[in-house]
Write a structure and sequence with these properties.
Largest sheet: 10 strands, mixed
Structural class: alpha+beta
Number of domains: 1
Oligomer: single chain
Order of helices and strands: HEHEHEEHEEEEEE
Number of helices: 4
Mean pLDDT: 74
Distance between the termini: 162 Å
Helix content: 10-25%
Strand content: 25-35%
Number of strands: 10
Low-confidence stretches: 32-37, 39-43
């Protein structure tokens, strides 16, 4: 078909403009994908130690030692080994678990013996799980090299340029979760006959903590180690979020409470009887006696 003499030719865009347009579309697509969320694993902090120790307390408080009340028992902790703890919870070690078990046993009225030979029953405890996880989720554009590397690759393929400025974190919301889990079990047998006497069942304790940021404000903290919702350590009321945490106390409600037992209470000493001198005097009788 012969073009009309009055028609004007269609202008052609420069090749460089086409490349820049493709680059802009790819960067926009990366931004849209990033808005769906990005998860990163973070190193644990002191919060993880609080969560881990709280998980230990929750698991130990579930064990009811009262069937052995009044018995002479020895705690065999040889099966509570000292593995390499995950980063952030090295302080919460098996020694803390052993001490918590001893406290729960004494609270139940058991007579703890220091040697096996002096005990009538052996309580053997084992530690199945002592660990924690931490995860961070960003709703927006996270900081880092992941998106920058992808954008640099796209730019290199279209324009030959490979250098892009560092992209800061642009988050609409941000969340960081902490989780710790502990699994403990114990059983008892007679020292001499080795006959079974009692078993606790498996006690699993979990504890969590959550930190939230909204448009840069935060962290809003909630979870098992917090009372309600806190902002920078201060309690705040947030609708639909502020609610009471479930009670973690087990069969012996005094596990988390301070208490003075009768045997440790100071006994008052009886006051000595003081005889007061009488106001009357005795006069000698005429015959040498006493009236």
């Amino acid at each position: 078909m012969t073009p009309s003499p009055n028609s004007s030719p269609i202008p052609q865009l420069p090749l460089r403009a086409d490349r820049l347009g493709v680059l802009g579309v790819m960067i926009a697509l990366f931004g849209i994908v990033s808005l769906s969320g990005c998860g990163t694993t973070q190193q644990a902090t002191a919060t993880d130690q609080l969560v881990a120790s709280d998980a230990v307390d929750r698991s130990i408080s579930q064990i009811d030692f009262t069937p052995l009340t009044g018995q002479k028992v020895f705690l065999d902790s040889s099966y509570i080994q000292n593995p390499k703890a995950p980063v952030g919870i090295q302080f919460v070690n098996p020694e803390y678990v052993i001490s918590s078990l001893r406290q729960q046993m004494m609270s139940a009225g058991l007579d703890l013996m220091e040697t096996r030979d002096t005990a009538d029953f052996i309580v053997e405890a084992r530690l199945g799980v002592l660990g924690g996880d931490s995860h961070e989720l960003v709703y927006g554009i996270p900081s880092g090299t992941g998106m920058g590397t992808a954008a640099s690759t796209a730019m290199a393929a279209t324009t030959g340029m490979t250098l892009l400025p560092s992209i800061p974190e642009l988050a609409l919301a941000k969340r960081k979760d902490h989780l710790a889990a502990v699994k403990v079990a114990a059983f008892a047998y007679h020292r001499e006959s080795h006959k079974r006497a009692w078993q606790s069942g498996v006690a699993i304790g979990k504890s969590t903590a959550h930190d939230y940021w909204f448009f840069g404000a935060g962290p809003f903290q909630r979870g098992d180690i917090h009372k309600g919702v806190q902002l920078a350590g201060n309690a705040v009321s947030v609708p639909l979020v502020s609610k009471e945490q479930p009670n973690s106390e087990g069969p012996i409600s005094a596990y988390r409470q301070g208490m003075i037992y009768e045997a440790a209470a100071p006994k008052s000493k009886p006051e000595p009887e003081i005889q007061q001198a009488s106001g009357t005097t005795t006069a000698p009788a005429a015959d040498g006696g006493v009236k």
